[in-house]
């Protein structure tokens, strides 16, 4: 852990060595600064940085299959270190994968202290599902801040939060509802004991919190299978958790 910052700095310098050599980028650990003389140049530089590992078209963002080919050729992971590396890699594309936290939960269990590493049908199945999702061309629509959004929340899932943000745009003269991103989060042990209504409120709060950089200042609608959420604004509760979520929302 002592040399982690230095190793990360080396990794960032290696990834962006061409851009740094061209003298329009500076990198310090997780901070990146871009230098440009015109707005046109600046937008080009931003495009090059944000497109890392993705295929970017005029209206969408997809996983670059050249980046995932090597890791997907492995038939099976052989140890904890390989599983950890795979999960870090998959996490980079988590916005493209529906319910990735739920799917990967059996893999994360292998990191527990008292769990003996062995190949099981459960975690092997999770590994294959994530590999399959990485090879799917799930296109993310590039956000238009002038248009309203739709937030879909799956409140019936017992494993954790599952939500998707969509936006209806005009593509080739036709209206089309496109996916902006998926989000997911596994329930903590204490949260797993919540009742149906409390879980529904938790999912709404988490979805709004995780997507606040998209939703803040935007017009959006929430679609969910938890009917209790429509009474949220006027709800009176003495439950501490739900009261804090209500105030925050």
UniProtKB/TrEMBL annotation:
Keywords from the UniProt entry = Endonuclease, Hydrolase, Nuclease, Nucleotidyltransferase, RNA-directed DNA polymerase, Transferase
Signal peptide range equals none
Q: Does Metal-binding show up as a keyword for this record?
A: no
Q: Which InterPro entries match?
A: DNA/RNA_pol_sf (IPR043502), Retrovirus_Pol_polyprotein (IPR050951), Rev_trsase/Diguanyl_cyclase (IPR043128), RT_RNaseH (IPR041373)
Q: What Gene Ontology molecular-function terms does this entry list? A: endonuclease activity; hydrolase activity; RNA-directed DNA polymerase activity
The reply on keyword Nuclease is yes
Under the heading Gene3D superfamilies, the entry gives: 3.30.70.270
TM regions (residue ranges): none
Describe the location of the Reverse transcriptase RNase H-like domain by residue ranges.
144-247
Q: What is the official name of this protein in its record?
A: Reverse transcriptase RNase H-like domain-containing protein
Q: Which organism is it from?
A: Austropuccinia psidii MF-1
């Amino acid at each position: 852990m002592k040399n982690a910052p230095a190793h990360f700095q080396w990794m960032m310098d290696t990834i962006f060595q061409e851009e740094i050599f061209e003298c329009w980028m500076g990198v310090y650990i997780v901070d990146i600064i871009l230098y440009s003389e015109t707005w046109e140049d600046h937008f080009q530089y931003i495009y090059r940085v944000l497109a890392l590992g993705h295929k970017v078209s005029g209206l969408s963002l997809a996983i670059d299959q050249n980046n995932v080919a090597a890791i997907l050729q492995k038939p099976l992971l052989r140890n904890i270190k390989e599983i950890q590396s795979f999960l870090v890699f998959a996490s980079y594309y988590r916005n493209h994968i529906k319910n990735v936290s739920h799917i990967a939960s059996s893999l994360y269990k292998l990191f527990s202290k008292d769990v003996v590493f062995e190949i099981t049908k459960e975690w092997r199945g999770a590994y294959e599902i994530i590999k399959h999702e990485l090879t799917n061309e799930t296109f993310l629509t590039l956000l238009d801040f002038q248009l309203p959004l739709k937030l879909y929340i799956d409140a019936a899932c017992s494993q954790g939060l599952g939500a998707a943000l969509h936006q209806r745009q005009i593509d080739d003269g036709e209206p089309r509802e496109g996916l902006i991103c998926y989000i997911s989060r596994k329930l903590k042990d204490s949260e797993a004991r919540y009742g149906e209504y409390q879980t529904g409120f938790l999912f709404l709060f988490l979805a709004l919190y995780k997507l606040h950089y998209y939703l803040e200042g935007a017009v959006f609608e929430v679609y969910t299978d938890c009917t209790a959420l429509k009474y949220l604004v006027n709800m009176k509760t003495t439950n501490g958790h739900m009261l804090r979520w209500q105030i925050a929302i």
